[in-house]
Structures are given as structure tokens and as C-alpha cells.
């Protein structure tokens, strides 16, 4: 945003009328320099295109750093935006360097011509060189500011390898090139001090990122933690089996849990002839879940009752990381984790919920037991959701929240800025050849906009748009620079806030509070934690969401556009799924093993519907029941005018149906089926749907009612007419939907049919969650870049507690046919 006016008033310039029509004559030399770049018709199209593209890029950065974060304190950038920005920024420096060279050469030519006619128009610099043109300096300023904002699309690297180091070398080369452009091309002290300071900030940000990456890679608390934790868990399993031997008391299980929250990196590795490599366990070194749970936190728990569960999520995140990094999880650990969650945490949540309800003494519309189950289910899901968020930020964070602790806060946000500003001051002094007073005065004298005022110049440019069209793009240039600078300043403030409010810092503070008595006795430290908890409670926290897709295009203006709609996971869905998992873990479903919905149909004695589940293709089962559920949803619409509340069973069935369809359409790698097989099933379904609707055109534009009528017509055709297409998904789904509608009208009623569908979709969703191989695990790891999927939360729960799909499908078990998932 810092520019210099080199030109004097030219009465023959087109800008003269502009100055006479309201622009302050004092600003005219500066405005002339700004608009002179567009006077050359040869480069006008390039100049205009550059200004427009830069304005769009600056607006995008501004939006990402402000509007998209007003209700989100996440340190993860949406991967779709990152996918767009990464290639754009990779081309940014070469393209802008070329434009900088063109602007520099053009400015030198204009200066030479001006000097030959009027020596007062352009002054010669030492060594026969001329100062950079204003257009060239504007481009150089853009390059520096974009380099400062580039970390927005670069995740903190925690992997060791050639790729991570190549990224560092690439960025270092960009910084070196920018340093060359700044210090070789700028001559005046004031401009060199401003641009040099920005370059020092960019170089310091690079060194900071390199130091953080190396610390993460080499530390046993971060990059090497998976192996360290595996040794720790092996020692725990050898020395202590109390976790499995304790009775049914939930508090006792949690109090004696030795899962590490923090501190295991400080344990020493020992070598013994008898035991081989092992960690030497010491008291008061590792802060465990039991230490957190037995600690009396007093009013901290009143401010946020979930902070202890947050520490449990952190411990589970560490355990799950080993699954991603090829460290096995033993059966003993799985068994103890299952007991901890479904005997310990579950009972503790029930107890605390009962106490809370009795304390509040509020009247509720629903049954009290139902309300308790809902509250407990939401809390349990939150534990695993927070765990997935820790994983997301560990692998894909663009901010160093992983290192959140009091020491890192002191080093990174207090000491580091002091050192950086010391180097900026040194650069400022060197630019003035040691004359501090001269350097300070040069900032104003050499940079016209500082002495004149940014807003004054901006208003002048806005007025000039009416009289001189070239000023429009000059105004855009100035707006781009201001937007980039404001975005950079906002980014620094927001990074600080994200760090302070992150779950990582809260877990670190709670561990310090638990392990050190001086923290508990200190009013300042305790007040600091309370203050952060208060701000966190006021801020909007990320909520567990999933995406919805309608394969039939119901509820959309363009039916063929199966674009996902994001929706918060309803509490009813959490309750139904958690109730099913708890019953499954406790063996209440011994006669109904986990299946793709087939067991639910047997429970409801709906044998005539069972053939819709008797398929080895999970995608085919999902799409068949999705079509049937969608038809039932249209057949019995909600009365919007009467604001009819959505029943729990209907909401569970429709939302899980939409999410399962989304997995087939957009995330087939998260399903247990072969990826290409899933894609083929969906492709064949689309082709069949086009055929049923009467062609490609009607597939794209037909209305919801027309689609419904066509599918019902297909379902009511005589069996012999559709025998050849008996295996077609759309026809199977239409016939299944027709049967469900007949069941609803014949006697079971709409509510009972929705109950059947809710239970079926609940079982099918849980059936999809367990791992089916290493490729499936890798897919869940890659899904973390999106902030985590709902199915990934269920996968984490299944991985911790040992829930698996049966090796033989239940409908084939009686026939003795093996069917591996």
C-alpha cells in the first residue's frame, strides 16, 4: 500500500481535467503516476486483467480470513478452497515476476523519455539507474503480501520425507527471489525500509514454519509419539490389568484409567536382556485420564462440565493415531477401551445427567428416561467427535495449534515477535546507512501516500472514475493492496485467538493444573483457565454434521444436480445409533448379529422385504432402500403450513438415508465395498433412472411429482414385464417403496413403517463403519482433510471398542455360504 509519486504536474496530461474537476491538486502527481500505467494501449489489456485477477484473489483471502471464521475457530482450511488456491499460488510468483519485469522496463523507458524533455519530471539516481515505476512497486508489494498470506493454504508438516523438504526449499527460493527484487531494485531509503521490513517478516515466517515443522517431526510428543505411546501401552498392559478386573462402578474405571494424556514423551527408554526395549514408568511423569478424573476441579467443571471428557478425547486421539501409522492395537487394549467407554464413561454420564436433571427441576415434554438417554448419547458422540477433530488438526492444520502449551505461547507469541521486530529495526537502520533520523524522515518524504493519507487518495480516485476511466483500475489496484494488508493483519490476530481457544491449549492447561500444585494454588493461573473457558462457551464451536444427497433429486430445483447439503446430525440419530451400539456391545443382539439391515427385518418379521438386503454389494442395498425411503417421504409429506414436527423415526430414517446416498455418490472409498464396484453401481443406477424417466432431458428437468409418478408406475407393472430387470436398482427400490406404502395403508400405519426404516438405516449405518482393510483406514485418514466425516466418527468408535462386521452374512449363514465383508 506504500507508493511514491515521482512525477510532476503535466498540463498536457489527460489527468489535468481530472484534477480540475474536484481532485486536490496536491494529489495530482500521485494520481498521474497511478494511472500512467494504463495510458499505454499496448499493455492495457494485461494491466486490466492483472488488476481484476488480483482483486478476486485479495477478496478470496479476505473472505477466508474474516467472514468464513466468524462462527468457526477451526485451524483447518476447507480442502476444496486449498485445491483451488494451491495451483493458483504456485503460478503467482512466476507470472507476477514477469509482469514486474515488464512494468520495470516500461517505467525505465518512460523515465528516460521524460528526462530527455524535462529533467524536473524524473530525477536520476546513482549509477545511472532510475527508481522503479509505481506500477512495478505495486506488483512487488502484492508479491510480498501474498507470500505472507501463503501459509493459509499450507498445512503444518508432520511427515518426514523428500516432499516435506522440497516444500521448504521451494518457499525459501521464493523468499530469496523476493529479497533480490526488493534490495536490488529499490534505491530510495524510505521505500527500501518499508519493502525491506515486509521481506524480513516473510523470511521470519519461513524460519518459524521450518522450526515448527522440525520440532513436530523430531519430538516424541508429536511426530514420534505413535511409537512412544505403543511402548507405553505395552508396559501398562504388562503391569496393570485392573481396568478389566474392576466391577461395574463407572467412576472407578475412569479413576484408574492409565491412558496417557500428556507426559509419556518424558519417559526413558531402557534396554534389558530379559524384557528388551521398554519404557521405565515413573510416578508423576505421565498425566493420565485417571489423574484428570480424580482431580477436584471445582468451579472449572461448573463452567464447562465437558472438560474432563475433552482430555479423554485427547487420550483416545493418541491411541487412534497409531492405527494410521501402522502400529497395531492389541485385543487387550480394545477390551479395556470397550469397558472404559461402555461401562465406565456411560454410567458416569448417566449419573451426572440424573444429578443435573434433579438439580434443574425442569418439566420436560418427553419421558425423563428418554431425555437422559439423549443427553448421554450426545455426550458420547461428542467425545469421539472431539477425538476426530484432534486428528484433523494434527494432520491438516494451517496453524501451529498442535504445539499449544504455555511454553510455546511464550516463545511463539511473545519472544518471537520481539526478535522479529528487532530484525525489522535493524533493516530500517541499514537502509538509512546508520542514520536513523534520516531513515525515519525518508519514510514520509519518499512515500507519497503516507504523507498525504490513504483515505484522501482513495476518495480522490473514486471521484476521478467519472472523468477518467483509467482511474477505475487504479482504484482496484489500491483496493487490492489495502485488502491484502488488512487480511494479513487480521490473520495474525485470528491465529492468536485460535491458539488461545483451541482444544489443544485447554488440554495442556488442564494437565498443568492437574500435575502441578502451584497451578492449583495460583489464583492467576486458575483465573486464566476460567477466563478461557468463559470465552470458549460464548464462541460458536464446531458441530457434528453430515451431508445429504437425494439420488432421485427430490427437494431440488435441478433434480440431476446431486450436490450435497450440509446438515447438523440430529440428536435423535445420535441417540438411536448409540442405543443400538450399547445393546450390541452388551450382547442384547445375540440373535440379531450386525448386518446391512437384514437382522432388523427379521426382528420385525418383514421377511417379504428381506431380499432387498440379500446382496453382497453394500452400495446396491443403500441405493435400493434410499429410493424406497425417498418415495415414502414424498408419499407422506409434512404439512409445512401447519408446521408439523418431524417424528423421531422419520428424521432418523430420512437423514441416514441421505447420508448413505452421499457416501455412495461422493465418498465411495469410505464404504466397505470395492471403490470401482461402488462407482459402477451408481453409474448403472443413473442410467436406469434416465431410462425410467424417459430420457436424459427429463432426467435433468422433470419435477418431483412427475418422478414420483413414473417410479410408482414402474413398481406397479406386472412381474413378468420387469422380470428381465429384476436386479435393476431403481426398479427394486421402486417396488420396495411401493410395498412400504402398502404396509402403511394396510394396517401397520405410517409411524410403524418409519420405525422399521429408522431401525434398518441405523443398523446399516453402523454396519458400514468398521474397517474392511488398510485401504479403508487410509481413506478415513484422507477424509480428515475435510474436517472428518460422520462415518469416520463411527469408525473411531468401532476401532476403539472392537466392533466388526461378521465374516459370514446372516442370510447366508444358514446355508453355510461364506461371505466376507
From TrEMBL:
**Which of UniProt's keywords are assigned here?**
Membrane, Transmembrane, Transmembrane helix
Where does the DUF4220 domain start and stop, copy by copy? 172-535
Keyword presence, Ubl conjugation: no
The transmembrane segments are 47-68, 80-100, 407-431, 465-490, 496-515
* Protein's UniProt keywords contain Transmembrane: yes
Quote the InterPro entries the UniProt record gives.
DUF4220 (IPR025315), DUF594 (IPR007658)
**By its UniProt entry, which PANTHER family does this protein fall under?**
OS01G0798800 PROTEIN-RELATED
Tell me what this protein is called.
Answer: DUF4220 domain-containing protein
Species: Setaria italica
Amino acid at each position: 500500500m506504500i507508493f511514491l509519486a515521482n512525477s510532476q504536474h503535466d498540463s498536457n496530461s489527460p489527468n489535468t481535467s481530472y484534477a480540475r474537476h474536484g481532485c486536490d491538486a496536491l494529489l495530482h502527481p500521485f494520481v498521474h503516476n497511478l494511472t500512467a500505467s494504463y495510458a499505454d494501449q499496448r499493455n492495457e489489456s494485461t494491466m486490466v486483467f492483472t488488476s481484476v485477477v488480483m482483486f478476486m484473489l485479495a477478496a478470496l483471502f479476505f473472505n477466508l480470513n474474516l467472514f468464513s471464521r466468524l462462527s468457526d475457530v477451526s485451524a483447518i482450511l476447507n480442502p476444496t478452497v486449498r485445491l483451488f488456491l494451491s495451483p493458483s499460488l504456485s503460478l503467482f510468483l512466476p507470472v507476477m515476476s514477469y509482469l514486474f519485469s515488464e512494468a520495470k522496463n516500461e517505467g525505465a523507458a518512460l523515465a528516460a523519455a521524460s528526462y530527455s524533455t524535462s529533467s524536473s519530471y524524473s530525477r536520476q539516481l546513482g549509477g545511472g539507474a532510475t527508481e522503479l515505476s509505481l506500477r512495478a512497486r505495486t506488483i512487488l508489494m502484492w508479491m510480498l503480501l501474498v507470500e505472507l498470506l501463503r501459509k493459509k493454504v499450507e498445512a503444518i508438516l508432520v511427515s518426514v520425507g523428500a516432499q516435506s523438504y522440497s516444500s521448504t526449499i521451494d518457499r525459501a527460493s521464493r523468499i530469496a527471489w523476493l529479497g533480490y527484487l526488493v534490495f536490488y531494485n529499490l534505491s530510495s531509503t524510505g521505500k527500501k525500509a518499508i519493502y525491506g521490513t515486509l521481506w524480513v517478516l516473510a523470511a521470519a515466517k519461513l524460519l518459524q514454519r521450518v522450526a515448527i515443522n522440525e520440532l513436530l517431526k523430531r519430538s516424541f510428543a508429536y511426530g514420534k509419539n505413535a511409537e512412544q505411546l505403543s511402548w507405553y501401552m505395552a508396559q501398562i498392559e504388562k503391569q496393570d490389568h485392573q481396568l478389566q478386573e474392576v466391577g461395574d462402578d463407572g467412576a472407578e474405571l475412569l479413576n484408574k484409567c492409565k491412558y496417557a494424556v500428556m507426559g509419556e514423551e518424558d519417559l526413558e527408554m531402557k534396554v534389558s536382556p530379559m524384557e528388551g526395549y521398554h519404557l521405565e514408568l515413573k510416578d508423576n511423569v505421565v498425566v493420565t485420564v485417571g489423574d484428570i478424573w480424580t482431580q477436584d476441579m471445582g468451579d472449572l467443571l461448573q463452567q464447562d462440565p465437558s472438560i474432563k471428557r475433552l482430555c479423554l478425547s485427547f487420550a483416545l486421539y493418541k491411541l487412534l493415531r497409531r492405527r494410521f501409522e501402522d502400529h497395531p492395537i492389541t485385543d487387550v487394549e480394545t477390551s479395556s477401551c470397550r469397558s472404559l467407554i461402555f461401562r465406565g464413561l456411560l454410567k458416569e454420564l448417566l449419573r451426572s445427567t440424573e444429578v443435573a436433571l434433579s438439580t434443574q427441576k425442569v418439566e420436560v415434554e418427553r419421558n425423563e428416561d428418554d431425555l437422559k438417554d439423549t443427553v448421554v448419547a450426545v455426550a458420547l458422540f461428542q467425545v469421539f467427535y472431539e477425538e476426530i477433530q484432534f486428528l484433523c488438526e494434527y494432520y491438516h492444520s494451517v496453524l501451529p495449534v498442535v504445539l499449544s502449551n504455555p511454553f510455546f505461547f511464550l516463545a511463539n507469541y511473545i519472544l518471537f515477535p520481539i526478535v522479529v521486530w528487532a530484525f525489522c529495526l535493524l533493516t530500517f537502520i541499514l537502509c538509512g546507512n546508520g542514520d536513523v533520523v534520516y531513515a525515519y524522515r525518508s519514510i514520509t518524504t519518499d512515500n507519497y501516500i503516507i504523507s498525504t493519507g490513504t483515505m484522501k487518495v482513495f476518495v480522490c480516485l473514486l471521484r476521478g472514475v467519472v472523468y477518467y476511466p483509467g482511474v477505475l483500475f487504479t482504484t482496484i489496484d489500491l483496493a487490492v493492496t489495502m485488502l491484502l494488508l488488512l487480511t494479513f493483519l487480521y490473520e495474525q490476530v485470528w491465529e492468536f485467538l485460535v491458539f488461545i481457544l483451541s482444544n489443544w491449549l485447554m488440554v495442556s492447561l488442564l494437565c498443568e493444573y492437574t500435575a502441578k500444585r502451584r497451578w492449583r494454588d495460583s489464583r492467576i493461573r486458575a483465573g486464566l483457565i476460567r477466563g478461557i473457558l468463559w470465552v470458549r462457551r460464548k464462541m460458536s464451536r464446531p458441530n457434528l454434521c453430515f451431508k445429504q444427497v437425494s439420488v432421485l433429486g427430490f427437494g431440488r430445483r435441478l433434480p440431476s444436480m446431486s450436490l450435497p447439503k450440509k446438515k447438523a446430525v440430529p440428536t435423535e440419530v445420535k441417540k438411536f445409533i448409540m442405543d443400538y451400539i450399547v445393546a450390541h456391545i452388551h450382547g442384547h443382539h445375540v440373535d440379531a448379529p450386525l448386518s446391512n439391515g437384514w437382522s432388523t427385518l427379521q426382528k420385525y418379521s418383514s421377511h417379504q422385504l428381506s431380499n432387498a438386503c440379500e446382496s453382497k454389494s453394500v452400495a446396491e442395498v443403500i441405493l435400493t432402500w434410499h429410493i424406497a425411503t425417498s418415495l415414502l417421504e414424498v408419499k407422506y409429506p409434512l404439512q409445512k403450513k401447519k408446521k408439523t414436527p418431524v417424528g423421531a423415526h422419520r428424521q432418523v430414517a430420512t437423514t441416514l438415508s441421505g447420508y448413505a446416498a452421499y457416501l455412495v455418490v461422493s465418498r465411495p472409498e469410505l464404504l466397505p465395498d470395492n471403490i470401482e464396484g461402488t462407482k459402477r453401481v451408481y453409474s448403472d443406477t443413473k442410467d436406469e433412472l434416465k431410462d425410467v424417466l424417459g430420457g436424459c432431458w427429463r432426467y435433468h428437468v422433470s419435477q418431483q411429482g412427475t418422478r414420483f409418478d413414473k417410479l410408482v408406475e414402474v413398481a406397479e407393472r406386472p412381474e413378468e414385464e420387469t422380470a428381465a430387470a429384476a436386479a435393476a436398482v431403481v426398479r427394486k427400490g421402486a417396488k420396495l417403496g411401493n410395498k412400504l406404502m402398502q404396509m402403511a395403508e394396510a394396517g401397520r400405519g405410517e409411524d410403524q413403517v418409519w420405525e422399521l426404516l429408522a431401525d434398518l438405516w441405523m443398523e446399516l449405518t453402523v454396519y458400514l463403519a468398521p474397517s474392511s482393510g488398510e485401504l479403508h483406514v487410509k481413506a478415513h485418514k484422507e477424509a480428515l482433510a475435510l474436517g472428518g466425516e460422520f462415518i469416520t466418527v463411527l469408525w473411531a468408535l468401532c476401532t476403539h471398542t472392537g466392533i466388526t462386521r461378521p465374516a459370514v452374512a446372516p442370510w447366508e449363514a444358514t446355508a453355510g455360504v461364506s461371505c466376507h465383508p
